[in-house]
Amino acid sequence: MRSLLRAALIAATVASVVSSATFATHADAAEAALVNVAANAAPAAAAKPVIVVLGDSLSAEYGLPRDTGWVQLMRQRLSDQRLDYSVANASISGDTTSGGRARLPVLLERLKPSIVIVELGANDALRGVPLSTTADNLRTIIEQAQQAHAKVVLVGMYVPPNYGPDYTQKFHRMYTTLSNELHVPLVPFLLAGIADKPDMFQADQIHPTRQAQPVLLDNVWPALKPLLHTTSTR
């Protein structure tokens, strides 16, 4: 269990070196995300409300065939349920809350999303970023999205037990605190239901497999679905 919880935490970091080498600045990363969004947009996307996923490798299809990650599955579920949204996957492997905070403004300006799903924080813990800094970054991300009239879904994570019970509890509690403080729905743990199942991870025992992606979507969906009924086309 300990090794798998560690795997759950470091899932977002394996490609961080590649990410930092590819993008010289957060602006470059944001621009790359916008290009990705354009490539996946439907022809009539401009007339649809937009859902932006601001995440790390857990949302960026790391190690998966293209268009098989949970974000793509969410796009398909929305279509199947006749919920007319355009989904913009602005996730970058290795991203931190600081990176997400830096590149969010251009995403808000260019895409004008109705909903922002925030899946960040695990890399901060691995890099020893103080919890106060991580919390401040997440708070700013949420508040910026809210100021842009977007609804927010906050996705929580756990850190491994070897970080110590005090830090482990405080890290996870941070997400709950922010959810309550800023009145945003919370996904308690993105990897719930797979963290103790080795066959749900790739060969590195770090990143979830293609078969695990529906579980990730099912973990996010209960927090997201209520917002879909209260969000109008912008």
Explain what the structure shows.
With 234 residues, the chain is α/β, with parallel strands linked by helices. It has one domain (2-228): 3-Layer(aba) Sandwich (Rossmann fold), CATH 3.40.50.1110. Helix content is 48%, strand content 9%. Helix 4 (70-80) packs across helix 9 and helix 5 (97-111) packs parallel to helix 7. It is globular. Residues 9-24 have low confidence and may be disordered.
How does CATH name the architecture? 3-Layer(aba) Sandwich
Structural class: alpha/beta
> Strand count, sense and closure of the main sheet?
5 strands, parallel
Low-confidence stretches: 9-24
Quickly count the helices.
Answer: 9
What's the level 1 CATH class? Alpha Beta
Number of domains: 1
Over the alpha carbons, how many angstroms does the gyration radius reach? 16 Å
Give the ordered list of helices and strands.
HHHEHEHEHHEHEH
Shape descriptor: globular
Domain SGNH hydrolase-type esterase: 53-211
Protein name: (3S)-malyl-CoA thioesterase
Keywords: Signal
GO molecular function, one term: phosphatidylcholine lysophospholipase activity
Write the layout of secondary structure elements.
Layout: H1 2-10, H2 16-22, H3 26-40, E1 50-55, H4 70-80, E2 86-89, H5 97-111, E3 115-119, H6 122-126, H7 131-147, E4 151-155, H8 165-182, E5 186-187, H9 213-228
Parallel strand pairs: 1-2, 1-3, 3-4, 4-5
Helix pairs in contact: 3-5, 4-9, 5-7, 7-8
